[in-house]
Design a protein that fits this description.
Shape: globular
Strand order of the largest sheet: 5-4-3-6-7
Radius of gyration: 31 Å
Helix content: 55-70%
Largest sheet: 5 strands, mixed
Structural class: alpha/beta
Number of strands: 9
Length: 555
Amino acid sequence: MHAGVFKAHETRLHCTKCKNKTVYTSEALARVVPDHGNFGYDVLVFTGKAMFLRHRNSREICDEFAARNIQISPREIDCLGKKFIIYLAIAHRQSAPRIRRSMQSKGGYVLHLDGTCEGGGPHLMSGLDSISSIVLGNIKLPSENAAEIIPFLRHIQSLFGNPLALVHDMGSGILKAVAEIFPGKPDFICHFHFLRDLGKDLLEPDYAVIRKRLKKHKIVAKLRHRARAMKKIIDNHPELMDALNEGFQHNRWPDSLRAQAPVVCAYTLIHWALDGKNQGQGYGFPFDRPYVEFAKRLYALRENLEQFKNISLQGQWLDNRPFWKMLGDLRDVVSDSGLRKAVADIQPKIQVFEKLRHAMRIAPKDGKQGLNANGMDMNMKTIEKRVTDFHHWLSTDRIFAQNKEYKKMIAQIDKYWVKLFADPITVQTCTGTGTIQPQRTNNILEHFFRDHKRAHRRRTGNGSMAKTFQTMLADTPLVKNLENPQYMETLLAGNPALEELFASIDSKLVRFELHKAQETPDKLPTKIRKIIANPMLPELVKNLFYNTTKCASES
């Protein structure tokens, strides 16, 4: 990057006396550009950091290079991005002994396992040490079954040894794989995943009905259409919103603007109802239940409109036409008996779920961090005592105890009880004996996956990652480690920067790894893709069999 484009003339020497005829290349050139490469290591590292740490897309990176008088195409940027991940993955594996010693000096590591997928794409699974916050390994899997996960766990074990403990979700594949590779190791269920799965099982049937009935009536589209028409009037009278605030302060609408009062009030009420869909702390369902809140606001809106729809500020019933129109929009949805029953049925289930949520101190309702929260700090014994009390209450209550849905909830708590409450682990560190309390959530990895998806949307403008998971390199999550100063110190091992570290890696190994990473077992051969592109393929196959049979019979 400091020189721009240049041509290098290299003199290569070979020893005539050596049996292998060893070729000696320029060490100075090899520190700048990889063998058979056209771009320097500094260009490679700049591209990788721009793409994965600053979340720039290929066109934006091209523009940044152009400002430095370097011409490079978006296609070449994409290629350099993949090479960056390959170099980083090789450097990570080569530094595994140093990473292992670093973790052992702190007493060991706690392995958190989690995966993500989208659509019909592959599962991306990552393993992370929660003590040092280092991503240890990654793999793309066709599905989360034990046979696929076991080799991945063996690979982590071979590089970093056995963990002090493991934390993961309730997936049967992970449970079986962990039991086989790390028998006897403390194995815990992430409290957030546990509570989320229990909540989904309990609330989803009624919540699905509420969601379906609201969409059937298209009430959101109706209210937004009504609000857009009202906004045109309000835009022509900007003083109306000030008048509304003043009216709330003095509990009286200004006399000079009485004619517009129904419009601005109706417009505000519509947006109050629609805002019900935005309620929650960012935890997702079942912690946040926006459709329930939206339905309750629609009922409240209808009830209040009925009470003041006939109160005309100017003495004419036509003055309140905005309210009458809103009532017309609401008529079908609030009279839907299926919706009303589902809203009523879900209320006691929400109360039970919230009671367990409070007992486990996960995803607090007053929390501001959303899914970034790792669980409220509390002694594990205290949490166990609170969940014990909840279990006793739910299993002895004469109403709840006989309900099959609550029985299933109790059975799930009993099934995973021993995997929910971790005692502190005594370890030997470089400073002496200490204790480590395994984190009770997997939100470190959840946070990373959300960041990765947000970065994807930032770079591509596309909300879906199904195709991206198909093409991305499995070790892409390793870029998260670049933000960890301790990891970088261990990785670089005395090298001043990534450029020098990458220059020490054999470029032949990089080309091999890149080729291997781009091979996918389910990728269709080019010849097959050309054949299936023919819309008349069934007819061709039929003729193929018919003519073959005919020729055989004739012979």
